[in-house]
Amino acid sequence: MTRSPELFLRRRNQVRKSLRARRFDAVVVQAERNVTWLTGFSGDSTWLVLTQDSEVLISDFRYITQLKEECPGVNTLIRTSKTKLLQAVAEAVHDLKIDRLGIEGHVVSLELVEGLKAELSEIQVDSFAWEIEALRTIKDREEIAELREAVRLAERGFQYLKAIVTPEITERQLAAELEFALRRFGAQGLSFPAIVAIGKGAAMPHYRPAETPVSASPILLLDWGACTINGYRSDLTRTLLTGKPDRKFEKVYRTVLEAQQAAIDRIAPGVSCAEVDAAARNIIQAAGFGKYFDHGLGHGIGLDIHESPRLSQNVETVLQAGMVVTIEPGIYLPDWGGVRIEDDVLVTRHGHEVLSSVPKDFESVQISC
Prior knowledge:
elongated; six-stranded mixed beta sheet; three-stranded antiparallel beta sheet; Creatine Amidinohydrolase; 21% strand; Creatine Amidinohydrolase, Chain A, domain 1; 2 domains
């Protein structure tokens, strides 16, 4: 997906408004994802110095060609191998003749902060933490298109995986097959290491795939996502049943599904994250499973797999059009297994749109192998 230089200029100008509002002359952007969002550069070890009317990417020899290809129109400063990144940044900032500099205090180490202050003793250095992430919360048209593509790729991977499930195949083999399929379909790779959990493993929300075969239990939980070439990530979960359904599984599954739908129905501009969380949590509690669902309901997605906003019990952040969030309630029963259902949802001007379309009704999750 081609992205124009004007797209990144618009984003940098958003940050400039924040700089003016907080009376900063410039900011050093260190977080890789933030550098990518503001310039299109996909490499590492590169910082962006952004002022009210200029910008410069400070990098090294390895990225000369890549910077030209990915960041046309953006000034670059290529340091030699004899010059440390911190020193190059300090020299660039000195030349700008500014009084107050922002740094991403939530990203940099204390050692780096002290080093930067020592190099720039005549300049006031203060934290400019989370400001860019706050802007990234509202996705623009290009980002929403990227996330649609990430969901589409994830759904193709899921259909492939369902087709190759056999009693003998293991969790690790399924995870490897999924990553290979996504790359073959055009993804950069997985959004994160896929969770493939069979039986008791499904009771652990962040389970790591092992050598357990599908035949060990009829419960198969898959939490996965695809990362596009431009770095945008989807995040989906389905819980499948590879054997004969019993009353316990059906009750747990239908409870989670009802809870998820109630939360999705609540999504709209002006609604708080806590309200959406409560819509799902109240149903799970009423069914007697409250203590078996003690993580947040969901989170934003984008260049990072976990972004703002967080949908949780104590988060009063209000949803706005352009946010894309996951809705992923679950019930986890030790020594038995678990059920989680997750979809990616766009907050629209008048409500919401579920971006993912993998079937999740009780009948559709029963597969034969």
